[in-house]
Amino acid sequence: MLKEGNIRIPSGCAISGIIDKSGAVFSGQIIADSIATMHDRSNGLGGGFAAYGIYPDFKEHYAFHMFYDDAKAKQDTEDLLKANFVIAYEEKIPTRKTQSIKNAPLIHRYFVLPKLEVLNASEMNDEDFIVKFIFNVNKNIDGAYIFSSGKNMGVFKAVGYPEDVAEFYKLETYNGYMWTAHGRFPTNTPGWWGGAHPFNLLNISVVHNGELSSYDTNRKYLEEFGYSCTLMTDTEVAAYIFDLLLRKHKLPVTLAAKVIASPLWNQVERLSPKERELYYNLKIIYSKALLNGPFSIIVTYDNGFIAINDRIKLRPLTAASQGDMIYVASEESAIRRVCKNPDKVWIPKGGEPVIAEIEQQNISEIYDKKEVTA
Amino acid sequence: MSLNYLTPEFKVLRDYDRCINCKVCMRQCANEVHSYDEDLDKMIADDYKCVNCQRCVVMCPTHALTIIKHPQVFRENANWTYDAIRDIYRQAETGGVLLSAMGNDRPYPIYWDKMVINASQVTNPSIDPLREPMELKIFIGRKPDKIELDENLNVKTKMPPQLKLNFPIMFSAMSYGSISYNAHASLARAAKELGIYYNTGEGGLHKDFRKYGENTIVQVASGRFGVDREYLKTAAAVEIKIGQGAKPGIGGHLPGEKVSEDISETRMIPVGSDAISPAPHHDIYSIEDLSQLIYSLKEATDYKKPVGVKIAAVNNVAAIASGIARAGADYIAIDGFRGGTGAAPKRIRDNVGIPIEFAIASVDSRLRSEGIRHTISLVAAGSIRNSADIIKAIALGADAVYIGSAALIAIGCHMCQQCNTGKCNWGIATQDPNLVKRLNPEIGYKRLINLITAWGHEIQEMLGGMGINDIESLKGNRLMLRGIGMTQKELDILGILAAGE
Ligand code: SF4
Ligand code: SF4
Question: Where in this chain does the record put each 4Fe-4S ferredoxin-type domain (chain B) (predicted)?
Fold first, then answer.
């Protein structure tokens, strides 16, 4: 049977996301409790978390989280790493033995910056350089996989139920201002750790519940812009589309939302002339970046997240707020579990994004731990 | 009669219990098959002349007529087939090139029929187009790489000219001359009502149809018939015709007897003179020359209209298409080897070119690998027979399709393949005023609207089944196709998996 990455596997899922808009950090236990409520939406074949603000000591470094199948993969990758990067710190990612998480690969993290001479020789900016490096490792080094690469953030994922994954990675010991979580229900999978969510590239991470019927269209479109979709997962495609729109094409996140869940033509006709012009261009230029098929998705980037449904809302998504906290999840129960009395609870319409961003400009300055009312 | 060694191809069966000698068949048949025998007081038929266009069969008020394949056979021979022998009789008789019409009718594999379409079950809900929005609108033209906005979200991108289509379907190039005034009237009016486009072909634009300009693509072919300022100005887009699927590599010839007063005016040539389209454009001997013509036409139309290039699907189609994209064309139309024609040498029609299915797949793949696919539109032509063919064409990588033969069938064509004789009993491929008036454009345009609307519904149903609510998300979505009964090599070229994979 083909391993995930060589074959496309549809899956259903649970997702959850929490942000403190004041930028204050809180423990990973909260998101773990939230996603655990939706245990039945996953089947133990994949769980994971993205955490932002967890590495204040290395906030200027790219944090590479790696899975290695064996020592050889590790050695080959480290040779390549050392040739291209200055490594400020590296370690085995701390884990605890748990009953339900088995067959763990070697899991390491590295805090790195590209070597200036290599970067200059490449004539790329450092983000493009990193992306190219990641594609190279993931595609060409057998048994090595970079699954997290942003600054001051990290992804933690495994084959298992999300609450077990949180325990395995000791997430209660990390504090971040924004967290997302994912529990997976693949219809079949050989259980590859890299296939779990969140999917990450630089500071963009994606958790996704759904199945893209536009997968092949989206993938081919991305390939024209130099992305190589090696995992054959919908989430990978969604992440690259956001990377293209937000990082490369500098679209505001509100408009990126209108690309992946674009308004219908008859809605566009009814807009003001200025908006009509905008959406006309957006829809035509990015027609192949439309994500079609059922999905609810949370995309996290530097300073916030966007949660959105497909435009006819074929998957569940609920949102709530309390003070500075914004919650989104597949089910309201997952929010109520960690926020008993929200100020407001709402169900976003299809294609209508929930955007929550840190209010202070300089997010890297804020790392006070704050008690969270739960 | 039989001195030319030929025997009749068809047999006219008349049920004399039903025939009332009304002579409708006699009046309807331009081939003069039927006549009335005074002595016998009976209608009789000359089987030799029958082309099986079925006009009489349909018009006979008592349903007395049936045309069958003539039962006369040669001694069975797998090598010297009926056609092989008869073609030799014909050429030995006339010393001429064999002419034929409509598309390649040889039993080559039809790859559309070896592909099946996906649908959602459980993991992805199918969408009911009667209850949910389902978008079929597409745009043909060059697309910028990215959108540029100023800080107030005003669009700074200069969007190249686009054709807006309510259905991913257009009417293929068929010239006035090869088809009748009424056929053009039907196509033009239907295109307008449907919000799509028809293509004048290379025979110029009749002055009566200038009012449909917004839905008209005009062709500039090697003969440059009818091309003037007005022509370019009136159209919504200009298409340079390099070749056509039915006769790649050769030109065209409208015999002088078909060049009536009206056609002479439209084509801008003298009445009764042969209208000859040279095989190549004599100002295009290379890709740079093509680029010059593209930009001359863009200059002439103030860069306000898409300029497309139509080519026949041939071996090297992917590289040629890439060259055309880089030469500045806004869209590329590719015509496969089953594409129809008003007249083509039979050997060329039946042996030159490649199937459109392969051509689309390899052009789409090639342009993608060069990172330029998203900048240009691709129109597939060459025997699109139904809505499923369209779904498959788009999933393989086309943006839209051209239909020619299917549109003519909608207005009455019975595929008798005699268009080149000018005696089309259905009033389509003829300039004989008595025949032309048989095609009522009032009815014709409605039948075309019905056809495209029906296909639109079917496309929506199939899209919904796949869990897609926008045709854009089908483009190049080859995962939605599976192949049946193909070799691995064929599957690889089409870029699809085998059924069950
Ligand atoms: S049209 Fe029919 S009924 Fe009339 S003459 Fe011909 S065969 Fe007889
Ligand atoms: S257009 Fe007329 S002549 Fe040509 S195939 Fe159709 S029916 Fe026959």
Answer: 10-39, 41-70
What is the ipTM, given to two decimal places? 0.90
Catalytic residue flag (residue A339): no
pLDDT at B448: 98
Mean pLDDT, chain B, rounded, equals: 95
Q: What is the pLDDT of residues A313-351, one digit of tens each?
A: 888 999 999 999 999 999 999 999 999 999 999 999 999
| B273 vs B290: CA distance, rounded Å | 28
Residue A38, pLDDT > 90, answer: no
pLDDT for A210 equals 83
Do the beta carbons of residue A222 and residue A244 sit within 8 Å? yes
* Beta carbon of B65 within 6 Å of any ligand 1 atom: yes
CA distance B351 to chain A (A): 34
**What percentage of chain B carries pLDDT values higher than 70?**
100
Contacts of B371 in chain A (CB under 8 A): 224-226
| Domain membership flag for residue B124 | no
- DSSP β-bridge partners for residue A206: A199, A299
* Closest CA relative to residue B202, chosen from B225, B232, B180: B225
The number of distinct structural domains making up chain B is 2
- Same domain, yes or no: B427 and B492: yes
Structural domain harbouring B62: 10-96
| Same domain? B160 vs B67 | no
Distance from CA of B231 to the nearest CA of A (A): 28
Residues B81 and B174 in one domain: no
Question: The whole model's pTM is what?
Answer: 0.92
CA distance A211 to chain B (A): 6
Query: What's the pLDDT at A186?
Result: 67
Check CB contact under 8 Å for B157 and A274. Answer: no
Instruction: Tell which residue, B191, B214, B203, B5, has the closest CA to residue B90.
Output: B5
* CATH code of the domain in which B336 resides: 3.20.20.70
* pLDDT per position as a tens digit, A49-94: 999 999 999 999 999 999 999 999 999 999 999 999 999 999 999 9
Residue A197's Cβ-count burial label (10 Å; 0-12, 13-18, 19+) is: buried
Chain-chain contact of A214 with B477 (C-beta, under 8 angstroms): yes
Instruction: Give the mean pLDDT of B39-55.
Output: 97
> Can you tell me the distance from the alpha carbon of A158 to that of A166, in angstroms, rounded to the nearest whole number?
9
Question: What residue has token string 């890439």?
Answer: B322
Q: Note whether B71 and B167 are same-domain residues.
A: no
Measured in angstroms, how far is the CA atom of residue B181 from the centroid of ligand 1? 29
For residue B359, report the distance from its CA to the centre of ligand 2, in Å.
Answer: 27
Q: What is the dihedral of CA B259, B263, B265, B267, to 10 degrees?
A: -90
CB pairs under 8 A between A and B: 117
Domain at A11-373: CATH code: 3.60.20.10
**Residues facing residue A62 across a β-bridge:** A112, A151
R_g (Cα) of chain B, nearest Å: 24
The answer to whether residues B410 and B317 belong to one domain is: yes
Give the Cβ contact number of residue A165 at 10 Å.
Answer: 29
Residue with the nearest Cα to atom 2 of ligand 1? B60
* pLDDT confidence of residue A289: 96
Ligand 1 atom closest to the Cα of residue B21 is: 5
pLDDT in tens, A194-215: 888 899 999 999 998 888 899 9
- Tell me if B55 CB under 6 Å of ligand 1: no
Whether B105 is in a domain gets the answer: no
Element containing residue A86 per DSSP (H, E):
strand A85-92
More confident of the two residues A6 and B497: B497
Q: CA-CA distance, A245 to A206, in Å (whole number)?
A: 14
